[in-house]
């Protein structure tokens, strides 16, 4: 089954008690190149319903999530640590004054990573958030990060974010991909999304591919990147965070 995403830092998302421990469960879902089945990278998914961590502000949950993600990556084999990682983060968190410290070069170096391996994955911002977010994203791109926009084509998505932000990647919502092989309307909609993506000079990624029939349609339509359970279950890691390192405080 495909796993619903959780964006740490969104309104209403608060850490919960967990017997004094700080636990975070993450899924690492491979993003595959359909041409040769090589792995472009991994999408990091915070398992839905698992928001446990230190009590405090919304930013505390974002820090706990970031710490768990970087810790899990650093524990991978040397070959896997060379991969790229799609890190979902809310627009509220990205425009927070503390965000610059979250993925600083020093922090990434402590974990044996660099900014070129991290893709900041966000949903389309609202009009009131867009200006601050665009300013933050420009700084991130200047530092070497790539940007991916998630849930493109979902009901609340207007595609304005793709044209105004010009992310490096767009993740096409899984509801469009599901049943693509039998639904002409979805194929037409996907064609429109890919046309806009190419106009904005970004690469589309099909989300939640579950069948070979869907994969064949994607290849026929010229889409080459995808993730989904067709290529196996996501790797699950569970981290007990312990005390925050000094640079999170």
Describe this structure in words.
This protein has 249 residues and is an alpha/beta fold. The chain has ten helices and nine strands. β5, α7 and β6 form a beta-alpha-beta unit. The radius of gyration is 18 Å and the shape is globular. The chain has an eight-stranded mixed barrel with strand order 1-2-3-4-5-6-7-8. The model is unreliable at 11-21, 49-56 and 241-249 (pLDDT under 50). The chain has a single domain (23-238), classed as TIM Barrel (Alpha-Beta Barrel). The N and C termini lie far apart (37 Å). The protein has helices at 58-74, 78-81, 91-94, 99-102, 105-110, 127-142, 160-165, 174-177, 184-199, 212-220; strands at residues 23-33, 38-46, 84-88, 118-123, 146-152, 169-172, 203-207, 225-227, 235-240. Helix content is 35%, strand content 22%.
Walk me through the topology:
Elements: E1 23-33, E2 38-46, H1 58-74, H2 78-81, E3 84-88, H3 91-94, H4 99-102, H5 105-110, E4 118-123, H6 127-142, E5 146-152, H7 160-165, E6 169-172, H8 174-177, H9 184-199, E7 203-207, H10 212-220, E8 225-227, E9 235-240
Parallel strand pairs: 2-3, 3-4, 4-5, 5-6, 6-7, 7-8
Antiparallel strand pairs: 1-2, 1-8, 1-9
Which descriptors apply to this entry?
249 residues; 10 helices; TIM Barrel; globular; single chain; disordered C terminus; alpha/beta
